[in-house]
Specification:
By secondary structure, the chain is α/β, with parallel strands linked by helices. The chain has one domain (74-350): Glycosidases (TIM Barrel). Helix content is 32%, strand content 14%. It is built from 9 helices and 11 strands. It has helices spanning 8-34, 85-92, 111-117, 143-156, 183-199, 248-251, 256-265, 286-297, 323-334, and strands at residues 74-79, 99-104, 124-129, 160-164, 205-209, 233-237, 270-274, 302-308, 311-312, 315-316, 339-340. An 8-stranded parallel beta barrel has the order 1-2-3-4-5-6-7-8. Strands 9-10 form a two-stranded antiparallel sheet. The longest helix is centred in the N-terminal third of the chain and has 27 residues, at 8-34. The protein is globular and about 50 Å long. The chain starts with 7 loop residues before the first helix and ends in a 12-residue tail after the last strand.
Length: 352
């Protein structure tokens, strides 16, 4: 069909309108580049089971998020201080950890954890990121801070596991847990955080939703689940103790078995994001055998074991202080040809 000519008397108005649109677009780009604009991604349609349709990601040079290992394959990693990494590698008999975890103080800078992993080619950092969920993120009060962290993630360039506000179903992290922060408030802030990062062009991050085991507040962890579109991996933190209740971390309500089943139901890979032997428990092979047996029971779901190589609030978990356990850990790693100590990036085009 032949297009009708534009009447000459309307041509000036049309040209002016188009020019205004182009100027507005340029101003928007410049403001975003300057880092002063608060980005408030549109909420989109949500539902309880999935959180809504997958959200489009912004353009980025960051690369893709971590590849999910194949059947029976496991990333072996550590939550550890940088000065402890080489010792951990020696104790476990690996060249480097596949995942190197670190912790960020409340509204702190994630760059420190990214820097810890940078010297190890193929090691993916796991950032346990403390974000103040007592605030309503949708009001934009933390947008400047969030944008700064997004810039750091994009600049890092390699795959990253991002674990915001973990163990939310307990009460010991008041800035994102009950009673200060309800489950619904947690979900709303988590969704906003993920939308923000994706709209900023952060394509290299796998978001790890990580409850504690055992329903510490008497409610199922699923009450805090943000939805499939907002979660890439499901994690859990568990420190099984020897004794009469030794199997509780696996068999109890919201134990590791139940959480693995939940991850499978939602089509998500799972990691044990914190685990470890705890003094004064006996130094033996028991815990390490149990954890590897559990992972082997879910070969299509459990994809990473990240050992907590610290002295924590409940005891000493350092492998160096548990030589018998460390020897078993090393044996299990060395005898498993599906253990992985390098993480590659999934092509961005393949990311849903």
């Amino acid at each position: 069909m032949k297009a009708s000519p534009v009447p000459s008397k309307n041509l000036g108005l049309l040209t002016a309108t188009l020019a205004a649109i182009l100027i507005a677009a340029c101003v928007t780009v410049l403001v975003l580049a300057g880092g002063t604009t608060r980005i408030s991604p549109a909420p989109g349609a949500l539902n309880a089971s999935t959180g809504g349709a997958p959200l489009p990601e912004g353009s980025s040079t960051a690369g893709g998020r971590p590849v999910v290992p194949g059947s029976g394959e496991l990333y072996i990693g550590a939550d550890a201080e940088p000065t402890r990494v080489s010792q951990f590698d020696s104790e476990v008999g690996i060249d480097q950890p596949g995942i190197l975890g670190g912790y960020v103080s409340l509204n702190g800078q994630i760059s420190s954890v990214l820097a810890h992993a940078k010297p190890y080619s193929g090691t993916a950092p796991m950032v346990s990121w403390s974000v103040d969920f007592t605030k309503n993120l949708a009001d934009g009060s933390l947008n400047s801070y969030l944008k700064q962290q997004a810039v750091e993630l994009i600049a890092y360039g390699g795959p990253v596991f991002l674990r915001p506000d973990w163990e939310m179903d307990g009460t010991w992290y008041p800035n994102w847990s009950p009673p200060k922060v309800s489950a619904s408030e947690y979900i709303a802030n988590w969704r906003y955080l993920v939308r923000f990062m994706r709209s900023a062009g952060v394509t290299n991050v796998a978001f790890v939703w990580c409850p504690n085991v055992g329903e510490p507040t008497g409610r199922p962890a699923s009450d805090w689940y943000p939805g499939d579109s907002y979660v890439d991996w499901i994690g859990s933190d568990a420190y099984p103790r020897q004794g009469s209740d030794a199997d509780d971390a696996f068999a109890e309500a919201d134990g590791l078995n139940q959480l693995a089943a939940f991850a499978k139901q939602h089509g998500k890979p799972m990691m044990l994001a914190e685990w470890g032997v705890t003094s004064p428990d006996p130094d033996n092979a028991w815990l390490f055998d149990l954890v590897f047996q559990w992972a082997a029971a879910y070969p299509e779901t459990v994809k990473a074991l990240v050992y907590f190589d610290y002295v924590g609030t409940k005891g000493d978990h350092l492998l160096v202080d548990h030589p018998n356990g460390a020897a078993e850990f090393k044996y299990l790693v060395q005898s498993d040809d599906k253990v992985l100590t390098k993480v590659s990036a999934q092509p961005v085009a393949d990311q849903g």
